[in-house]
Amino acid sequence: MINITHSKMNRFNYKLWNKYFMANDRKRLQIDFSKETGLTETEKKLIFPSIQAFQKGEGSDGAFLMYVVEEFAFKYQKKEYIEAMRQFVKEENWHSAYLKKYMDYYGVKSKDRTFLDECFRRLRKLGGLKCEITVLVTAEMIALTYYDALSRCTDSPALKEICAQMLHDELPHIMFQSYTLSHMEKGWFDRTLRVFFMAATLLPVWIAYHEVYLHGGYNLSRYIRENMGYLKQSIFMTKKYDS
Ligand SMILES: [Fe+2]
Ligand SMILES: [Fe+2]
Known about the structure:
The protein is mainly α. Helices cover 72% and strands 0% of the residues.
């Protein structure tokens, strides 16, 4: 697990987040398929069901999200948040596009809907921005362990490149969302809810994609420890912004 609590990005306001996202957007990954030697059928069966699900999950248009973001920006007089969130959605769509390119290379079709993505989308719309961000950041923390495991499932250089880019982008996302959560109520009830939601999400993801995690060096105990560890860091950062 990577420690992100000491990152200087934890001191960013939305103006700086905007700057970061715009700079990162100029460094988009050009996937190099020239060293690709192919995947075995076993490898394809192992990795593509989860890649299809994550490809779908990364590719939201963010329409409802932007609606609640604007409410928040108005309430807290943080107009820069709207642009930062637009940039964030754009970055997530890039993630979806990287995975799509990889699937296209191997002739794998996208999924219109997946069970987990459907659950995440419904849950995000249950409340306002706090609910949206809580669900989003939980998925992003799980993505960190997923892409780490996925990168070790095969020798595919293109997939390793994509996973490295995902990890590079997702770590700041956790800090960005934690900063927003720090503006909202965050007593023991909110913290308990976040732990409960993480626990409730870890179970179906493990049931669906444990093979990827196991091949990538994660047993159940490491899977829980690392994801809960990221949550602990996010909660710590949310409280830290108070002082
Ligand atoms: Fe992403
Ligand atoms: Fe993300």
